[in-house]
Amino acid sequence: MKSKRKGNTDKKTIVMTHHTPFDVTGKIEQVKDNKSLLRDVARALDNNLPDYWYFGHIHDGIAYAPKKVTASTHGPRIPGTCHMRCTGHASMPYGAPWALAKVGSTPPFKKSDFIKDIEFFAQTPKPDCGLHVKNGFLTFALTGANIEEAFYDSDGKRTWFRKSGPTT
Fold it and tell me: How far apart are CA 150 and CA 22, in angstroms?
């Protein structure tokens, strides 16, 4: 596979895929038939992580803490830090992602209820729908060397925001 980075290591890389590099918790690398999307993408980027990775597949809205990949049975350490975002909560009714909250926590979850390495997950209750939560979406805007990211509920209310500069 030919590298897509072409030596431009000073520029940020954004990858968008349907499938996920990790499980919903962001901890377990997804490998099927000895193939890893994470490792395939890194190989295409001169064995580096993308700076930002947006994916769906899992029906949740999640912002993960910056991720580093250490050596594992699936392969060696991958240089770089990746800001991963799961944006799969735009369709189908769904409930708050219990796997992202500490055992014993109950909705509505507070930041202190989140498991390690989770910055945000969509969980605005849907009125009169039991444990269902509102669908939503993510936007990002590139302005010079900055990226602004925001999650919104389906009614347009912003629920999470992050602005990052050239060094993050």
Answer: 21
